Amino acid sequence: MPIVTVNIKEGRTVEQKREMARRMTQVICETMKVEPAAVRIIVNEMKNENFAIGGTLVCDDPSMQVKPEA
Q: Choosing from 2, 36, 62, 68, which is the catalytic residue?
């Protein structure tokens, strides 16, 4: 049973996460020769206050934050 953990910053829509899970499952099934029901995907969504880039918390720099879809 493949188990995949995905770490992302907050700000993605449910639709984006749903599509990611669908596509990742498809690729895992094709490459590992397993059925979709065997695939587990864990999405860890981090708040911007709990993630830093280059020593700066993402919540302190708007340019680092995920932009909503247009």
A: 2
